[in-house]
């Protein structure tokens, strides 16, 4: 009566293997896109910081460290480098005089917009080669994966709008 059967371990393993292959392919595509445009000024760890600050504007170092699963000293060094690049700024917290808030600068937001646009362009050209049925299955599968992870964050588009706005 509408009860979903327990997922097959073999089916889960095959899906996980396919996801790993896709992640590796995406990494190759991102590198190709980066080489075609220019070298990225940020490392993968710094990019995680930018994504986190984009979603959690105005958090402090401790909270950012918890989000990233990193020690405060490591996070502080990452933010120092991003601040030197002009992507992140620290400012006083309105809640506590002892805390500093971390925010993306306009330059940092523009960098993420451009990065997302380049990545979306690469994905669009790759997905265009798929059949309509395969594209729909991919879209449905990715939404299911996002839902299974339990994230409440909307998918971000290259233009900064979220998936919820598109589906409304």
Automatic annotation (TrEMBL):
Recorded hits in PROSITE patterns, A to Z, give: HTH_MARR_1, HTH_MARR_2
Pfam families on file: MarR_2
Keyword annotations from UniProtKB, A to Z: DNA-binding, Transcription, Transcription regulation
What the entry lists under PANTHER family is as follows:
REGULATORY PROTEIN MARR, TRANSCRIPTIONAL REGULATOR, MARR FAMILY
Q: Which Gene3D superfamilies match?
A: Winged helix-like DNA-binding domain superfamily/Winged helix DNA-binding domain
Molecular-function GO term, any one: DNA-binding transcription factor activity
Name of the protein in question: MarR family transcriptional regulator
Q: Does the keyword Transcription apply?
A: yes
Q: Domain HTH marR-type, which positions?
A: 15-147
Q: Which organism is it from?
A: Streptomyces kanasensis
Name a single GO biological process: response to stress
| Signal peptide per UniProt | none
């Amino acid at each position: 009566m509408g009860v979903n059967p327990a997922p097959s371990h073999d089916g889960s393993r095959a899906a996980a293997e396919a996801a790993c292959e896709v992640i590796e392919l995406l990494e190759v595509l991102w590198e190709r896109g980066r080489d075609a445009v220019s070298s990225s000024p940020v490392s993968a760890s710094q990019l995680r910081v930018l994504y986190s600050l984009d979603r959690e504007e105005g958090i402090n170092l401790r909270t950012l460290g918890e989000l990233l699963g990193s020690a405060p000293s490591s996070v502080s060094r990452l933010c120092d480098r991003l601040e030197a690049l002009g992507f992140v700024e620290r400012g006083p917290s309105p809640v506590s005089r002892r805390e500093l808030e971390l925010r993306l600068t306009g330059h940092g937001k523009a960098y993420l917009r451009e990065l997302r646009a380049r990545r979306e362009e690469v994905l669009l050209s790759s997905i265009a080669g798929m059949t309509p049925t395969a594209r729909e299955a991919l879209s449905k599968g990715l939404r299911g994966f996002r839902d299974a992870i339990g994230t409440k964050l909307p998918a971000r588009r290259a233009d900064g709008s979220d998936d919820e706005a598109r589906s409304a």
